[in-house]
Design a protein that fits this description.
By secondary structure, this protein is of the alpha/beta class. The protein has 2 domains: 240 residues, Serine Threonine Protein Phosphatase 5, Tetratricopeptide repeat (Alpha Horseshoe), CATH 1.25.40.10; 196 residues, Rossmann fold (3-Layer(aba) Sandwich). The chain is built from 22 helices and 9 strands. Strands 1, 2, 3, 4, 5, 6, 7, 8 and 9 form a 9-stranded mixed sheet that branches. Helix 6 packs antiparallel against helix 7, helix 10 runs antiparallel to helix 11 and helix 10 runs parallel beside helix 12. The longest helix has 14 residues. 48% of the residues are buried. The mean pLDDT is 91.
Amino acid sequence: MHRQTAVAEAAAAAEPATELSPEQALQLAIAWHREGRWDAAGKIYEALLRVQPRDANVLHFLGMLRYQRGRRDEAIALMQQSIAEDGTVPDWHCNLGNVLLESNRLDEAAAAYARAQALAPERPELHNNLGALLREQGRLAEAEAAYRRALELKPDFADAHTNLGSLLMRTGRPEEGIRTFWEALVHSPRHGKARKLVGMAYGQLGRMEEAARVYREWLEDEPGNAEALHHLAACAGGPVPQRAADDYVETVFDGFAKSFDAKLTRLHYQAPALVAQRVAELAGAPQRALRVLDAGCGTGLCGPLLAPYARHLHGVDLSAGMLAQAEPRKVYDQLSKGELTAFIAAAPASSWELIVSADTLCYFGGLADVAAAAAHALAPGGWLVFTVEALPEAAAEPYRLHPHGRYAHRAGYVREALAAAGLAVLGVQAAHLRTENARPVDGFLVSARKAEAARSS
């Protein structure tokens, strides 16, 4: 195919046909890529590669597009190929390092960052990225040195201040960490991550009035900000919302969907395995016989564990970013975007024989509505299996919203909510869900069942 023809063909598939040079076509694709018109951009990248398969620029940008679509292995292969064609661009090595880091391929990420630094040793963002990698490897002193080097090169680098503050909190230096968060805010007063983290740091230290003041000031600048509202509710001493607001959940999970799996791997995340183990105990040997709903499926970590039991596996999540990561797993028969309680309540009665929810109901306080919805949507004899974080039974309230933004529940309250919905409680078992700040997060693995249908005489 002639090079110009391929370009015109791709452009025509997305917009009215225009005569473009290959260079103009690439610039158009990049512009559409940045605007979120991914399908159109992808068609042009692919058309250009058909006629010039070794074009380093096109390979790299198509790799970035594949990464954004959750197809990480393809992305990494394309980015590596682009670097093989032209290894002189430090940003390309850095981008590859970022994708490898988010894929938990830490040694390869370190090599990519090292190549980027060799090409541009005075680039502060490269030292900041290296600090993030070293932190994930547990090399905390080296990570701190990398962040501090980034700040030597760029003293007003708010992201590096924020990352350094988080590291100082992790290494038991909270006062220094708080000062570092404030330094980020001096240079970037509307830096949302720094605002959230300084508020959470005060909350972690029990300084609730100072935490609340941070969030109130944030709301003065950004009225209605979902994260500020949610975290303020955890420390202001007023009424606690029944669950996290939809816009809060979407903001948080869209924001770290791409790195979600790798982060949870490093936190020794156990919830999917715990849920799967309980499903095996209840359902016996997998026979692909059940209609299964993965409620709050996220990136689909439970999907491969549930698929052997499912003749139909449906995932629902409020975060489009998380669903974009779940789709490439190719284990779900159907994926839907929606708030899980409303989604389950709107389903026809007896839609599923099994509903699971791993580490999602920690964003719910009251469980009455979701329990009632599950009781409606489960077939007679169907199971509900989920995890929540644990609140001591001696607590005065049935659930508590912690400063980190998640709810914890008393076991007694969980039992009461399920029983009130007409579900028979099969177990509320203590479990370690993951680690956080090198400490286990205590939770409950909960299972319940809907009564069998009454037999006619």
